[in-house]
Design brief:
single chain, Nucleotidyltransferase, domain 5, six-stranded mixed beta sheet, globular
């Protein structure tokens, strides 16, 4: 991993947390470490797939990284665990995610396209070989749903709940959470969200163009519901092609940050899934910023050489 990218990620996480979280929770706090610094350290932990002891060891050996995180001393690994368990709440992580999504520029015409989908994150670190040998053992997972802004590949909303189950139950909550953040013009979803009620609510109440394949019901039999019947007859395949962007986001998250959650308690697993969404948005912002800077340097050097 490039050193400059890591420092830029740490600075961005610290500044973003400073906009949402106050420096100290109480006026009687020891004021040894600030809440934005600890929250940025948790994002760095997910970014590098470390545990609390590994995060402490990294900060001890990297003075420049401590300066980027606003740390004058290195917190103990138990401090990170206590802060993640008692001070970090799901609603706070939702606010941080929204602040991270606001880092990306929006279109002037307001025609933003989002894709909705759900995936599973393993709640245990058991190997796949061990799970395959236990044929009658049910491997639990956490159902993580997201609204992905397809143009910059950014997560705008994310609930999580115990699996197995369908992600269709989160559709209205996802759209309600993402609409104040991003003016949605078109929503793309898979056949799991196929419902006439969803089409009616999105198109008539929210003013959002919904594109969902109408596959539920008897195969080959036309439906009598107007929106689903239109989807069966005139399905816009070219517009629907952008839905696969959400699968790209899930692939990046699982390859870089892992597909298994390391915490054991349920609410800690929910918060870790939210932290991974925030970490992905910060990683995406760093990548887009670094690529833009490298492109500008290349253009400048090319102009000087010519």
């Amino acid at each position: 991993m490039p050193r400059q990218d890591l420092l830029q990620f740490a600075r961005l996480a610290y500044r973003l947390a400073g906009y949402v979280v106050p420096p100290y929770r109480s006026q009687f706090s020891p004021k040894k470490f600030t809440q934005p610094s600890l929250l940025a350290c948790l994002c760095l932990k997910e970014y590098l797939t470390l545990d609390y002891r590994g995060l402490e060891a990294l900060l001890v050996s990297a003075a420049e990284l401590r300066a980027a995180l606003g740390l004058r001393a290195v917190p103990d690994h138990s401090m990170f665990h206590w802060f993640a368990r008692h001070q970090v709440k799901p609603r706070l992580l939702i606010q941080v995610l929204e602040a991270a999504a606001r880092l990306f520029p929006r279109r002037r015409n307001g025609r933003h396209v989002v894709a909705v989908d759900a995936t599973g994150l393993s709640r245990r670190l058991a190997s796949r070989y061990y799970v395959s040998r236990l044929r009658h053992w049910r491997h639990p997972y956490l159902l993580w749903s997201t609204v992905v802004w397809t143009k910059p590949l950014v997560i705008c909303a994310q609930p999580a709940q115990r699996g197995p189950g369908s992600g269709a139950r989160f559709l209205r909550a996802l759209v309600t959470q993402a609409r104040p953040l991003l003016p949605i013009h078109r929503l793309l979803a898979d056949a799991d969200d196929d419902s006439e009620a969803h089409h009616r609510w999105l198109r008539e109440d929210c003013g959002i163009e919904s594109i969902i394949p109408a596959t539920k019901g008897r195969h080959g039999q036309p439906t009598q519901q107007p929106y689903r019947r239109w989807m069966q007859r005139y399905f816009p395949r070219r517009k629907y092609g952008q839905r696969w962007m959400v699968e790209t986001v899930y692939s990046v998250v699982k390859r870089k940050f892992g597909e298994a959650l390391t915490t054991r308690r349920y609410w800690q697993q929910v918060k870790q899934a939210f932290l991974r969404g925030i970490t992905y948005n910060l990683y995406r912002a760093v990548q887009l910023g670094v690529l833009l800077w490298r492109w500008l340097c290349h253009r400048i050097l090319f102009a000087v050489a010519s």
